[in-house]
Amino acid sequence: MALFLASFAVQAQTPAAVKAAARAAKVSTDLLPVIENNGINTQAPFPGGLVRENLFMTEGNSIAISAVANSEQEGQALLQSLQALGLTKGRVLKQQVTGYLPIDKLDDLKNVSVLRSARPSYKPIHNVGSVTSQGDTSMRSHIARTTYDVNGAGVKVGVLSDSYDRLGGAASGVASGDLPMNVEVLKEFSGDGGIDEGRAMIELIHDVAPGSPQAFYTAFEGQLDFAAGIRALAAAGCKIITDDVSYFAEPFFQDGPIAQAVDDVVSNSGVTYFSSAGNSARQSYQSAYRGTTPPASPTYYVGAHNFWGGDKFQSLTIGAGRSITIAFQWDDPFFSVSGGSGARTDMDLLVYFNGTFLSQFSSQAESIGGDPVEIIGLRNTGSSALTIELVLAKYEDVTTGSTPDPTLVKWVNFGNDVPTEYDTKSSTVVGHSNATRTIAVGAAPFYNTPAYNNALSTATIEPFSSAGGTPILFSTNGTRLGAPVVRQKPEITSVDGTNTTFFISDTNRDTDAFPNFFGTSAAAPHAAGVAALMKQKAPGISPAAILTALENTALDMDDPSTPGFDAGFDFGTGYGFIQADKAIQAILPANPTFAITGVTTISCSPVPGNPNKRSLTFMPKYSVLNGQPITFSVASETLPTTAPGPYTIEIYIDNPTITLKATQQGTSGEARFIYNWLAVCGTTPPTPDPEPTNFVITDVTTISCNPTPGDPNRRSLTFNPQYSGTNGQPITFSIVNEKLPTTAPGPYTIGVYTDRPTITLKATQQGTSGEASFVYNWLAVCGTTPPAPTPEPTNFTITGVTTISCSPTPGEPNKRSLTFDPQYSGINGQPVTFSVVSEKLPTTAPGPYTLGVYIDNPTITLKATQQGTSGEASFVYNWLAVCGSSSARFGAGSEEANGLNVVMLGNPVEDGRVSVMVRGAASQPVNMILTDTRGKVIGSHQIEQAGREEQHVFEVSRQPTSLLLLKVSTPTESKTIKVLKVQ
What we know:
Alpha-Beta Plaits, Jelly Rolls, 37% strand, tripeptidyl-peptidase activity, Glr3161-like_dom, Peptidase_S8_subtilisin-rel, serine protease
């Protein structure tokens, strides 16, 4: 049956009555009418044609729900209880359970003792726009394939979207060569509404990397299954994964289950992960909460957000035939993500028309102890525009008691762009696209790239491409961070609007009749295809190195929402439009030379009946491998072969050296190596090997069990298996459901959870039959209490300098009195001897140090040695870049002063974090703006009422080496600090 949103006669019910009824039913207020009406649409028509969008996911007579248990320990019990009611496709993660529940069983939820509450699992959104790929030419991947002889072979790419072959066109795509053969479909979408966008994404990847095998997993079965799909694709061997799906209810200010899954596979499986940044442009309102009086109707509200000048109503004009989908959140942690106390405040999203409250279109879920999110979807089915008003209202009653005000409110419109009053045009990259290890991808249409428009030197961003800058305020365990973390999103821009065989419709921007695929949904798979080419060329390359190469070689682009051209990173385009050939060139050695660097001698056995002859088994070692076939031979002993080693030959001891030869496809020249095998083996015949024994895993050496920051139930486990029955041949090792087979020697490191105390190790040995297995109770060895991480030994170095003051010398305008303090790492507590080359003799006196220096000597070299540590530390200190050439005093002093006092905690900045402390502004508003020397804003922070001491951190890890300017101001004072960002 088709499920429509069922309204209820809230006109006759107060918000308190609605919330009480939902609380008793253990469901959200938007699931309550589904129970009351058994899923039948009772929505009355509204004058002008305004209707509420159906955001529910259904499958037959079942509805997708997201339920939470009373505690994390009861999550599995909740799954079993819901399955007993008929829940299908159930998934559980900690306290959260998702799946499809029969609609007629929703009323039974109130009797499930371990259930805290349930809400709809809202529909996800495709990041698709309004309509052989031109992206191949735009990104120069066609040049990359020819120049570097790559096509993605051996690099498996995983795709997450709605469906792959619900429409039945995959076989035709394979036959025409537009799809790869044997796409591995791990899970297909079986619900309502699949349009095979995943197949269109796979077509685009196949255009860029035609040799890459591909796999698919639907992302349309809820957030928990999406997260499971990410891990499943990684377990299936995908080294590149991309998605184009967003969920409205993903946390804005905290990493939810999908974001955590991305971080997991990137960190522990070496996956490079691309996600569409989104198609919401800057359709977002974000502000510090300013409380004002509540609206007169409905009652029970104790306050509302003041948009400006006391106005609590924000108008939005929805054009004829257009729709909005608004997700509203505030700065509380999600109970479904981190457990604990959940939301402390109950905010509601109220809708008004001409000042009249429209309960049937509002979102009034009870949030205390749950998730701080309200979602509405509205469509104007009329023939003229409609203007509505939004109120962000704070709710309290006798059940909630007094609750704190939120400090930050934000909504994102995932629907059509509509005129908005008090529009802050804030960030819209949210959820897993904003995860630390996700590469968020913006979109530029092919016809606005240099390859298709000769008038352009760089690409132009799509107007709908989402902008970054959303702050992360909470850890995954729900703890508020000491300072907001603003991640640089999107990282890159790729191409969209390109041809497919079926998706969606043709554009007049090209001359052919093929349908064109627009949106960041198309940009992300294009970028994934480029990464597959890079991974083939450099198989050992890390996800971080792939991202760095893409960023450093991209065509710099402009964010049109900011004044002037944005040099370097910006929140609209990232680091710019990617170039495949330049990215591959960047990851290659400057002068690549394929060589035989040595030999591993495996065995030297006597040949029966001939004491002067040996059976020699060995393995060459190579440098600068490019993944292409190697042809190997031994001069005068073996013919050329492309078979991989080890190699075995019979040889006489009067021939003590042999010449090894090798060539590698794609590399010029022949590598040679003189192998003195007899010096290794000796002239005395070795004792014959004993009869082979069974190959087994006998034990495990546990090396370390370190806690995972922000997740007390997770450990980073490093260990080494111990074997018996080894024969010197390669061993293939794996961990069931945790690590794919590998021939790399240990130690091995994986992330494990304490609720899974044992893991099963597997190993096979070449030349030995059977598989060895060992159950490793790692938790019994490590214990349940997280051990303190063992600090890694560090060399003694000068890591940076704290500049304390730069004062002019009276009568000498070109001279400064410079006071500074070196920063060290690797300190062992022994005396440090410090000097400045040509300026200061060695001294063991501790800093700070003061020198007289001239501005025509902008850099000085600092030297230091530490007793008990070998070697001398050296650091080139560009003091003039920090202090500036003017005669003004440098404003980063650490001394307290009357009035506004700004202290830099480390300057120059080397760790990518600009830390600033502000004193002397108590009870005043404080504004901080970090810019480059051109005035481009890199970060900002506002404090409405400062305390005695305020500290804030700006993230600048991806900012190039440069001089930055930090302006800190109050209503009466302003100070500008020069900050040097170094590598």
